[in-house]
Design a protein that fits this description.
This protein is mainly alpha-helical. The protein has helices at about 1-25, 30-40, 55-80, 80-95, 100, 135-155, 160-175, 210-230, 235-250, 275-290, 300-305, 310, 360-370, 380-395, and strands at about 180-185, 190, 250, 255-260, 315, 320. It has one domain (about 45-395): Alpha/alpha barrel (Glycosyltransferase). One of its GO terms (biological process) is carbohydrate metabolic process.
């Protein structure tokens, strides 16, 4: 009888152990990232650089940059230099493709071939080349995060490359930091304006910028100042953040969350930020806070921004449905949508970096990852989501929630 009791106790203990192990196992892993990286066709080291005449700033900003940021995050999680080795080769190629290097007009008819990347008429059906701040920001941000990683960790084997990349990034960022592309609203607020070229062809030419087209540019500029120990951009960054916070951000009492508009005066007839572009806005502000040291937005502010994840996901449906936009629900007849109805459905997974302010978000997003068909995701943004999740998870270790 005693043996039976001992065997029963051991079996019960083993069962509890296995259940606990199963519960603690993450569904999002380094192995999943590595497998997906090798499978995706455009930006894996086996495919990159692909000889594609259609590649332009849009390709690098909305394709390569997500993979590049994920490589930085994966190094920071694992300290495996293979991720930096891959990235170094890719950055060298990216800088070989600037308008200046290729002899391409950055703005049609101006004769300027600048050290940045134009869209080569992508958004005007070939009628007008334009060089967007958002593209320059998206492309240079992971490059500067690489440089920051090298400097912070004193990785001597990458120092020579990091110095070159920092200088080239500075030249690219300076393209958009012109006095005629800035307006002061007050002593404390101001914002960037689109390049004056291309009016009539390009929607943002000579017009006040909107958050998701400037935020990541500001983040790259903030990192550039930090790495060069300069203050070329600091005043304009602070004024831009003040403008975001004091003039564009609104409060949603129902979810104790912030949402924001494109312009100060906005209503339902004008588009609010969808959850994809909203993530870009927030990511730039997040990098400025976490990696460049700006404190205009506080920890409490980021907690309210993070609460948007709870607003976006309808966890009472299975698989979960998602909102398309981040504004207050108001009088909408329908707020949540299936993946077939919602073009931004999977973009909620890209919000995982906010898990550093609320660990529960990581658990929720992991459940979404498990319950939805993530194979439908764009592989570049899926890589970015996985790496961002793993990096946030790593950063929260040891935090007494």
């Amino acid at each position: 009888m005693k043996k039976i009791f001992i065997l029963f106790s051991v079996s019960l203990g083993l069962l509890f152990y296995l259940l606990l192990q199963k519960d603690s196992e993450t569904k999002i892993t380094e192995e999943i990232y590595n497998d997906l990286y090798e499978q995706q066709s455009d930006w894996s080291i086996n495919q990159f650089p692909a000889t594609n005449p259609d590649y332009n700033a849009s390709s690098y900003a909305w394709g390569w940059s997500y993979v590049a940021n994920s490589l930085v995050d994966m190094y920071r999680v694992t300290e495996d230099k293979k991720y930096l080795d891959i990235l170094t080769q890719q950055i060298d190629y990216i800088f070989s493709q600037t308008d200046e290097k290729l002899g391409i007009e950055s703005f049609t008819g101006t004769g300027h071939s600048l050290p940045a990347w134009s869209d080569r008429g992508h958004y005007t059906s070939g009628e007008f080349n334009y060089t967007y701040p958002v593209h320059t920001g998206m492309i240079t941000l992971p490059i500067l995060r690489f440089v920051d990683t090298v400097y912070t960790n004193n990785l001597n084997e990458y120092k020579e490359s990091a110095v070159r990349f920092l200088a080239a990034s500075g030249e690219a960022l300076a393209v958009h930091n012109q006095d005629n592309m800035w307006v002061d609203f007050s002593d404390t607020e101001g914002f960037y304006i689109g390049h004056p070229y291309g009016e009539g062809y390009v929607s943002e030419a000579n017009k006040i910028g909107i958050p998701n087209r400037i935020s990541v540019y500001l983040a790259a500029a903030g990192l550039y100042d930090k790495l060069t120990e300069g203050n070329t951009y600091s005043e304009r960054i602070k004024k831009s953040l003040n403008y975001f916070k004091d003039s564009l951000f609104k409060y949603d009492e129902e979810f104790d969350s912030y949402y924001w508009s494109y312009w100060e005066e906005q209503n339902i007839q004008k588009p609010w930020e969808d959850i994809s572009h909203a993530m870009i806005t927030v990511y730039g502000i997040f990098i400025l806070h976490e990696e460049a040291g700006y404190t205009v937005f506080t920890e409490e502010d980021f907690e309210k921004i993070a609460n948007n994840v709870y607003k976006v996901i309808d966890d009472e449906s299975s698989p979960p449905q998602m909102r398309k936009f981040i504004h207050k629900r108001g009088e909408e007849e329908k707020a949540y949508y299936t993946s077939e109805e919602n073009p931004y459905y999977y973009d909620v997974l890209r919000w995982s970096f906010l898990g550093v302010y609320d660990e529960e978000i990581l658990d929720i997003l992991e459940e979404v990852y498990e319950e939805t068909n993530v194979e439908e995701m764009n592989p570049q943004t899926r890589l970015n989501s996985i790496a961002s999740y793993l990096y946030a998870k790593e950063k929260t270790r040891g935090i007494p929630w």
